[in-house]
Amino acid sequence: MPATAASSRRASSRRASPSRKGSSRRGAARPSRQLSVAALRFGRLAAMAAVAVLILVAGVWGSWGTAQHVMLTKGREQGTIEVARCGAESCSGPYRPLSAGSQARTRVVIEKTVAVRAGQTYTVVVKPEGDEVVRSGPAGVLYSWVPMGGALLLASVVVAGGLGRTRVGWVLAGSGVALLTAVFVTI
Asked: What is the distance between the alpha carbons of residues 81 and 123, in angstroms, rounded to a whole number?
C-alpha cells in the first residue's frame, strides 16, 4: 500500500505541474491583453472626444461669421432696411441709418432666409466695406447662432453614444433644442 500511495502522489504531481505551467502562461498573457483592451478603450474615447470637440468648434466657426457683426456693434453702422424685392438667394432694399456716422443707401443686400420677407422692415448692421447687411437685435443674435444649435445636437449624439456620457449628451441636446426653439419663436 505504501508503494501505491507514493506512485499516486507522483502521478498527481505530474498532472498538476503541466497545469501550473499553463496557468503561469495564461497569467502572463492577461496583463498584456488587459493593457491592449485599455489602450483600445482609451483610443476610442479620445477619438470620440476629438470628434465632439471638432463638431462644436465647427458650430462656433459657422456661427461667428455672422454673429461677430451682430454682437460686436460698437463702431459699426446700424440702421433699418425695408425689403423691396427678393431674388433666389438675397433680398434688397433701401437703408436708413440709426447710428451716428452711418450714411443712407439706396440699396443694400441681405441674405434671403426664412426670417426675411419682402415688404417688411428690419433693424440691421452693415458689414464692413460693402453693401451687405445682417439682422440685428435679439432675432439677429439668435439667428446667427443657428449653426451652433445644430452642432450641439450633433455633438450630443457623439457624447452620449461614443463617450457613454448620457447626462452630458442630454445637456448638449437640451441646449441645442432650446437655442433652435428660441430662434423659431423670435423670428
From this structure: 7
Q: What pTM was estimated for this model as a whole? A: 0.74
Percent of the chain residues topping a pLDDT of 70 = 84
Q: How far is CA 82 from CA 31, 95, 124, 187, in A?
A: 72, 7, 10, 16
Rounded distance between C-alpha atoms, residue 187 and residue 175, angstroms: 18
Q: Answer yes or no: are the C-beta atoms of 152 and 176 closer than 8 Å.
A: yes
Per-residue confidence (pLDDT) for residue 179, from 0 to 100: 96
* 67-69-74-78 Cα dihedral, nearest 10 degrees: -120
* Neighbouring residues of 185: CB distance < 8 A, sequence distance ≥ 6: none
What is residue 155's DSSP assignment?
A: H
